[in-house]
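Give me the fold.
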Amino acid sequence: MAAEASTVLVDSSVFIHLLRQGIDPNTELSARAKRMDLATCGMVQVEVLRGVRNSKVGQKLLRFMSVMLYASTEFRTWDAVARLASELDRKGIILPAQDLIIATCARQLDAAVFTLDNHFHHVPGLRVMTSLDELC
């Protein structure tokens, strides 16, 4: 489902895909997202930065993420994650905890999720973007 959003939380799958293609995520995402705010959360930071082997690349990514909108995780966030997990589990939809955290953080910001991961399409009411072209 395409999403019209003024805020987009960029999932780790996008950062990882761009890095593997030899594309600088900072430059690519900044150039594409002219009319919307980019967001991140702690889970995305962990997933992206844990795999970066080059410390200069890691520092550059961290600086980029530090100027993005940030969805903090507090008790109400974890409560919402647990409720979402329970709701989906009861429907037979078992998603990784990381994706549930990211989806909840996006909801907290009223943001779409830009992802290459199909799990997010199973989250009710979550707006999902799957292409760089949707950022333009």
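The mean pLDDT is 94.
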